[in-house]
Amino acid sequence: MGAMGFFKLFRSDSRTDASSPSDAKSGDRPTRHSSGLAELTKIISGKESLSILDLGPTSPQNISLLTGMGHRVYNEDVLLASLDPEYATQDEDGSKRIKVAEFLAENLNHTGEKFDAVLCWDIPDYLHESLVKVMIERLASVMKPGGVLLAYFHTKDAGPDAPYYRYHIAGKDLLSLQRGPQFRLQRVFNNRHIENLFKEFSNIKFFLARDNVREVLVVR
Q1: Are 79 and 182 in contact (CB under 8 A)?
Q2: Maximum mean pLDDT: which of 23-37, 154-168, 171-185
Q3: Angle CA(23)–CA(25)–CA(31) in degrees, nearest 5?
Q4: What are the backbone dihedrals phi and psi of residue 41, each rounded to the nearest 5 degrees, phi first?
Q5: Structural domains of the chain in order of their starting residue, each with its CATH number
Q6: Which of 198, 128, 187 minimizes the C-alpha distance to 156?
Q7: pTM of this prediction?
Q8: Type and span of the H or E element at 145
């Protein structure tokens, strides 16, 4: 059987459409090399029918490349889904809170599917605090033993106004960056925080990039 791709879009919004002004205003897309992506590409190359979950905005480029390698691709824009007003509530002191149980009931809910690889990108840096830990726990539960997850974390030098990008795979170690909506950086993880976040995983490898981003490849 030839390459197959299964695309699941759980939510859509004009803010993340490729033609929206927030994406187009930056002009040409810059590129960046990624050692973590190179490592993940090496792992999935030469294998067929792997199940790969992309947690970023829809990228036809990613879907085309990965299905061309013979893999099945699922897409779920977790950050955009988390901003749905139906999940928002407030505590008595007025602080914003997310209805975690309701969110998990409708998102990252892949019954019967186990993933060989997850493209987590930098979602944890922008996600509401109450969802970060539970998202990683849910991912651990839907990944196969030995499955790999690629994530990016901003360093303290990035600043809270670091631009949010959509990541498009342009080569085995190359990404094309498309400016997305101006989501605000919520936090900065240090190495110890990252290790604790992935404590349910069997192995973790760090790659320090030059653009205030720390790359992590973890093994389930």
Answers
A1: no
A2: 171-185
A3: 70
A4: -60, -40
A5: 14-219 (3.40.50.150)
A6: 187
A7: 0.85
A8: strand 143-154
User: Which position has the token pair 């498009």?
Assistant: 168
Q: Give strand pairing partners of 96.
A: 90
Q: Is 218 helix (H, G, I), strand (E, B) or coil?
A: strand
DSSP-based three-state secondary structure for 61: helix
Quick one: tokens of 181? 């909506």
Identify the DSSP state of 87. G
CA distance 125 to 187: 6
Q: What pLDDT is attached to residue 189?
A: 94
pLDDT in tens, 130-172: 999 999 999 999 999 999 999 999 998 887 788 899 999 999 9
Cα 125 off chain centre by: 10
> Are 216 and 153 spatial neighbours (Cβ–Cβ below 8 Å)?
yes
pLDDT 10s digits, 70-95 = 999 999 999 999 999 999 998 878 78
Contact (CB, 8 A) for 77 and 54: no
